Amino acid sequence: MAPPERRRRSTQRDIAQRTGVSQATVSLVISGGAASTQIAESTRRAVLAAADEMGYTANVAARSLKGGRNRLLGLYTFESVFPTDQRDFYYPFLLGVEEEAARQGYDLLLFSSTGTDRDAARFGPREPGAADTPAGVSGTQAAERSIYVGGSNRLKIADGCVLLGRNVRREELSALVREDFPFVFVGRREVDDAELSYVAADYVAATGALVAELARLGHRRILYLRALEDSEPTRDREEGYRRGLAEAGIVPDEALIRTLADPADLSIERVEEWIGGLGITALLVEPTEDDRLTEALATMAGTRRVRFPADCSLALLGDPPCWTPELRDWTRFSLPRAQMAGQAVRVLIELLDQESHEPRQLTVPCAYVPGDSIGPVPAHRVGVRPGVGTEPESDGRPVT
Amino acid sequence: MAPPERRRRSTQRDIAQRTGVSQATVSLVISGGAASTQIAESTRRAVLAAADEMGYTANVAARSLKGGRNRLLGLYTFESVFPTDQRDFYYPFLLGVEEEAARQGYDLLLFSSTGTDRDAARFGPREPGAADTPAGVSGTQAAERSIYVGGSNRLKIADGCVLLGRNVRREELSALVREDFPFVFVGRREVDDAELSYVAADYVAATGALVAELARLGHRRILYLRALEDSEPTRDREEGYRRGLAEAGIVPDEALIRTLADPADLSIERVEEWIGGLGITALLVEPTEDDRLTEALATMAGTRRVRFPADCSLALLGDPPCWTPELRDWTRFSLPRAQMAGQAVRVLIELLDQESHEPRQLTVPCAYVPGDSIGPVPAHRVGVRPGVGTEPESDGRPVT
DNA sequence: GGCACTTGCTAATACGTATTAGTTGGGAGC
DNA sequence: GCTCCCAACTAATACGTATTAGCAAGTGCC
After folding, report:
1. Neighbours of B14 (CB within 10 A)
2. Is residue B117 predicted with pLDDT exceeding 50?
3. Which of A48, A101, A121 lies at the smallest CB-CB distance from B105?
4. Cβ atoms of residues B390 and B220 within 8 Å
5. Residues of A in contact with B91 (CB under 8 A)
6. Is A182:A352 a contact under the CB 8 Å cutoff?
7. Bigger pLDDT: B70 or B363?
8. pLDDT (tens digit, 9 = 90+) per residue, A158-173?
9. Do A114 and B107 touch (CB under 8 A)?
10. Which residues are within 8 A (CB) of A209 and not within 5 positions of it... i.e. 6 or more apart?
């Protein structure tokens, strides 16, 4: 049962036969290697002519096989990139990666399949008794995304990989490092037992600058609403908050650092409470990747019970996705997502080109977006302290 | 000058040595071919264990070279997918492809590199005198996107490919067919010398239905504004327009088919001219992929000099991208982009699974979006004919 | 004529995998 | 003891290219 005489592409050998030279000569002519200067002009012409006539196209697979590299960059995200509600968050990264990869002549491999139910069947039938994760990496469950499935690392199909995502599996990252697989994380990520390469936004500086600006405007009691997860970006923002306060000579009040479990919880009533109870004059909010915060802000601003910034200044520690023109221009800083992604690609390619896989860690500054939601402390509240917890060092911190 | 001990990926041979079997056995175990049933359970276990320990991953290039499969689907677009102004057009396709590929356990290969300036340098230094396109496929220029670059077809590292885009290079498509490379086009595309597979929206029926609806509302003079390019989608819409008219018993007036070179040319003055001069009561507009039409419509509707549908009905032959909530809900039909893309992936996988690469051509229906921009013919204009070109068969067709 | 050197080419090999045609060892059947 | 067969494996090869070592012929020089 031979394949039904499938139409075969012409190869260098075919050209060689037709021209009466060797395959090696054809290769030299076509790919113009170092020794190609030694080919007689007449021969070169003949070979090129034959190639043209026979419609020769080089086989990329063969070339890659020979070179050991596939000119493929992977893009792996720990969360799905494509659900509609997060598109605006991930899209700029995607764009940046794609663009830079294209510029560098690499193609992009989107790891979509990993972490699907189908994974079990990936490498053909497997005995039910066989261990699914013999690779020392534990915790591989079906529905969740993970790099190591069926015990093997599919990322390796690519020459290297750009990683993205908030809910990282640390153990997989360190496994990658142990394997010496070249990758770059977009965003600062740390794992216990290894150093890894990343390109990160400078949340510390950006948050610090925002606090400084508020302090300059006279604010002394600035509430910081942090995200629930204890990830690096959140920690960096907190760090920036503390540094900003310190540089402004403000003694931090732990009661003014609160965790916002769900952005939808951010209501006008809460803000009124905080103003009255805690005596705050400004609010820093850490945005989420989906559009819940944007919605909460919009409805909150819609009530007009508290005017920003007339009654209270408000700034965002990053830019929320789903930005539509009619949304108000909140004061915030903005991370250069596309540039970060492009930079990550460049770093990755450097890693690939150089033999030493020493980790590289880059930090890029965020852009300050002035917006219109911060202003000076309202005149009637200058110097006013809240009724409760008057002392800055008060630790009677009510649970949110 | 040996390569400085580059960290090599482990191969089947490495596993074979470690396990004490032959490379062939390893291959049989790993890729689970026909003869794999004949492998002893103990051997299989040992091989798999070694593979896991050594972090083995199959080499894509080698598999492709051999004709094997990599569970990789390519996505090639003739225009760049990622420019911001077209994002809303391509995004749903991307989403659909990604989702279905993931569901089927395939990863996605985005061909970004092809057609960049860097291409010339892709495979190392090249003699200035060397021909850039020895491949018989002519017209390969640097800045433009093209499949065959440097004489090779890079798509081949994927098992098959989904193609997308309006400005297609026909000669490349037929080259692909000649090579017998499996691919599916999203959208109907025809080339002279070959049949190809596609999943297309039924523009003919959708446009016809829209015309029928207008006819039902009493419209007799319906202007059709077609796009400049003479691509299949445009031709199909025209076909649908004519069929719709025919079925409604309306004699087509060639003066009512006009080409709109630039959507920005669509102004309220024009519409007034058409209403007065041509006596039209309804307008069918073919949308573009960017947001120019959307803008033109918005500004036009903003003037309120012509009320839609009170003075004139207006419907769109497809959905324009960049849909924001505050935009009005134009009557139109909507193509199920994500579903089309998903269907294309399924068709492609069928092609891959079956050896026969007979082309498959699927058509999917569009969704009718009632909207609010069509209505009955204004009472004072029922039966009214324009001052000039009264006869339907008038051919005094002024150039737009 | 012999040596060194250049020019223009080829033979051979490697890349990593899949597949086919064997080969081996041993047990069943007579 | 012989054949026959089967399970379990391996050797060999092909895929298409890039590269290196080397070969043959030619040229210049002593």
Report:
1. 17
2. no
3. A121
4. no
5. 87, 91
6. yes
7. B363
8. 888 999 988 788 888 8
9. yes
10. A244, A333, A368
Give the CA angle between residues A159, A78, A111 to the nearest 5°.
40
Give the A window 110-129 contacts with B, CB below 8 Å: 110-114, 116, 118-119, 121-125, 127
Q: Which amino acid is at A203?
A: Y
pTM: 0.79
Short-list B82, B125, B99, B85, CA closest to B345:
B99
Q: Where are the beta strands (DSSP E) in chain A?
A: 72-77, 107-110, 148-149, 152-153, 160-164, 183-186, 198-201, 222-226, 257-259, 282-285, 313-316, 331-334, 361-364, 367-369
Q: Tokens representing A341?
A: 């992604």
Q: Which residues 6+ apart lie within 8 Å of B178 measured at CB?
A: A7, A55, B194
| Phi, psi for residue B250 in degrees, rounded to 5 | -100, 130
pLDDT digits (tens, 9 = 90+) for A311-334: 999 999 998 776 666 678 899 999
Distances (CA, A) of A258 to A75, A254, A263, B68: 34, 8, 12, 56
Say which amino acid occupies B335. Answer: L
The encoded tokens of residue A15 equal 């050209």
Cα separation, A150 vs A134, in Å, equals 8
* C1' (D22) to CA (B330) span, angstroms: 76
DSSP A162: E
**From CA A114, how far away is CA A153, in angstroms rounded?**
10
So what's the pLDDT on residue B143?
A: 43
Q: For residue A374, which of A232, A218, A263, A243 has the smallest C-alpha distance?
A: A218
At B285, the amino acid letter reads V
And the tokens for B40? 């002893």
Spatial distance between the Cα atoms of B88 and B338, rounded to a whole number of angstroms: 12
Q: Which nucleotides of D are covered by protein (CB under 7 A)?
A: 7-12, 14-21
Helix (H, G, I), strand (E, B) or coil at A193: coil
Residues 178-217 of A with CB under 8 A from B: 179-180
- Residue A93: count of CB within 10 angstroms of its CB: 23
* Cα torsion angle, B313, B316, B319, B323, sign: negative
Q: Is the peptide bond before B309 cis (omega within 30 degrees of 0)?
A: yes
A–B: how many Cβ contacts below 8 A?
A: 216
Whole-angstrom distance, CA of residue B17 vs CA of residue B31:
18
pLDDT tens-digit readout, A237-267: 999 999 999 999 999 999 999 998 888 888 8
Nearest nt to the CA of A61 via C1' is D16
Q: A63 to each of A27, B60, B157, how far by Cα in Å?
A: 11, 12, 11
Farthest CA pair distance, chain A:
97
Tell me if the bond preceding B252 is cis, omega within 30° of 0.
no
Question: Which residue in chain B is spatially nearest to A35 when comparing CA positions?
Answer: B127
Nearest to A126 by CA among B99, B325, B97, B48: B48
> How far is it, in rounded angstroms, from Cα A359 to Cα A194?
9
Angle at A29 between CA A28 and CA A34, to 5 degrees: 45
| Residue B93, min C-alpha distance to chain A (Å) | 11
Buried residues in A213-252 as b, exposed as e (16+ CB within 10 A): bbbeebbbbbbbbbbeeebbbbbbbbbbbbbbbeebebeb
What is the Cα–Cα distance from A214 to A225, expressed in whole angstroms?
A: 15
Q: Within 10 Å of residue A351's Cβ, how many Cβ atoms?
A: 20
- Which nucleotide lies closest to B13 by the C1' atom and the CA atom? C16
